[in-house]
């Protein structure tokens, strides 16, 4: 067993799941508008905190441990398809790319929602803002889909329950890439 | 001075034109909805301001126990700015005679009717209700004096 996800990351992760689920569930009705807005502010606060934590923390939560590199991400996916992917303890390069995309699009979704709600004081373009909020949020939902598929795929391939790892913080880590060592 | 007045005249006519464009769009929508209402009911006699006004102010009680009318948020005078009863946020005037951005795009209006009617009233509005609703909104052209 290896301790991978620190308490901040775990609390952040599941709080964001809840905040986003609440915001999504309440997005359509005027009656739920206040709950939707508050859930969005919570999500925005969580995302911003995660960015700060990525900058200041050490270990697998740090941005240094999963550098943004789309070429490495593509190479990783290529290797996965050929069954000879390197095993990463924290985020693999493809997963890391999705994380950066989720942080960025998530903040855009919250920021645009914030401007939609306060359309009278910064940008008075309700339709443009609503469109931005709409597309950013659905883009985010697609990223959630990719994220979850990646987690399930890696859980199956490495026979390691990554969802449990996000609760306990511990991953069962196999000996780092015997195939690579050959 | 002459140049300024020409510019002013141009601006004014542009403003008048854009307001006019919105009103004619709203009128087109009334025609479309009246046609739909006539198709649904051959005895339909056309939209009326009275029906629209009654619909606008009619209080509807939803299953959630909240009793609301269109006027709850949009105020009794749709030419005024409204106030969202849940969030307290300001809402721009609903009457297309005052706010040219309202009822300017049929597809958006249709989508908004579907969403808003189901959300606030609990069921979709009929074409006859929509026709009278816009007919009434067009008659409200003067914002009340602010308190």
Number of domains of chain A: 1
CATH H level, superfamily name of chain B: Cytochrome c-like domain
Total count of helical runs of at least 4 residues of chain A: 7
Q: Could you say which structural class the secondary elements and strand pairing of chain B correspond to?
A: mainly alpha
Strand order within the widest beta sheet of chain B: 1-2
Global outline of chain A: elongated
Return the average pLDDT of chain B rounded to an integer: 85
- What is the overall silhouette of chain B? globular
What does this structure look like?
The complex is a heterodimer of chains A (182) and B (147). With 182 residues, chain A is mainly α. Chain A has helices at residues 7-25, 33-56, 70-81, 93-117, 126-157, 162-168, 178-181; strands at residues 2-3, 170-171. Chain A is built from seven helices and two strands. Chain A has a two-stranded antiparallel sheet. The radius of gyration of chain A is 18 Å and the shape is elongated. Chain A starts with a strand and ends with a helix. Residues 176-182 of chain A have low confidence and may be disordered. By secondary structure, chain B is mainly α. Chain B has one domain: Cytochrome Bc1 Complex, Chain D, domain 2. Helices cover 56% and strands 5% of the residues of chain B. In chain B, the strands form two sheets. A two-stranded antiparallel ribbon of chain B has the order 1-2. A two-stranded antiparallel ribbon of chain B has the order 3-4. In chain B, α1 runs antiparallel to α5 and α2 crosses α5 (127-139). The longest helix of chain B has 39 residues, at 2-40. The radius of gyration of chain B is 17 Å and the shape is globular. The model of chain B has no long low-confidence stretch (mean pLDDT 85). The chains are: A mainly alpha (182), B mainly alpha (147). Chain A binds chain B through residues 28-31, 33-34, 37, 117, 120, and chain B through 64, 66, 73, 84, 86-87, 89-90, 115-116, 119-120.
């Amino acid at each position: 067993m290896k301790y991978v996800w620190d308490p901040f990351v775990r609390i952040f992760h599941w709080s964001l799941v809840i905040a986003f689920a609440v915001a999504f569930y309440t997005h359509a009705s005027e009656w739920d508008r206040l709950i939707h807005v508050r859930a969005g502010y919570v999500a925005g606060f969580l995302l911003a905190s995660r960015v700060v934590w990525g900058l200041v923390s050490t270990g697998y939560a740090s941005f240094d441990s999963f550098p943004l590199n789309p070429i490495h991400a593509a190479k990783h996916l290529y290797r996965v398809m050929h069954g000879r992917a390197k095993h990463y303890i924290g985020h693999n390069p493809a997963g890391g790319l999705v994380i950066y995309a989720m942080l960025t699009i998530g903040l855009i979704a919250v920021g645009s929602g914030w401007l939609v709600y306060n359309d009278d004081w910064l940008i008075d373009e309700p339709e443009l803002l609503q469109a931005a909020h709409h597309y950013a949020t659905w883009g985010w939902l697609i990223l959630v889909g990719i994220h979850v598929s990646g987690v399930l795929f890696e859980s199956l391939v490495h026979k390691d329950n990554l969802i449990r790892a996000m609760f306990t913080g511990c991953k069962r880590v196999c000996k780092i890439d015997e195939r690579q060592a050959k | 001075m002459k140049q300024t007045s020409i510019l002013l005249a141009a601006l004014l006519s542009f403003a008048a034109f854009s307001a006019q464009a919105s009103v004619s769009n709203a009128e087109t929508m009334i025609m479309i909805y009246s046609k739909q209402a006539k198709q649904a009911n051959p005895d339909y006699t056309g939209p009326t301001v009275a029906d629209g006004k009654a619909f606008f102010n009619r209080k509807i009680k939803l299953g959630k126990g909240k009793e609301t009318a269109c006027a709850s948020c949009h105020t009794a005078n749709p030419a005024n700015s409204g106030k969202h009863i849940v969030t307290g946020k300001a809402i721009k005037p609903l009457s297309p005679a005052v706010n040219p951005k309202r009822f300017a795009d049929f597809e958006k209006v249709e989508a908004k009717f579907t969403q808003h009617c189901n959300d606030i009233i609990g069921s979709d509005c009929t074409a006859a209700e929509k026709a009278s609703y816009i007919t009434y909104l067009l008659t409200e052209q003067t914002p009340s004096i602010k308190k």
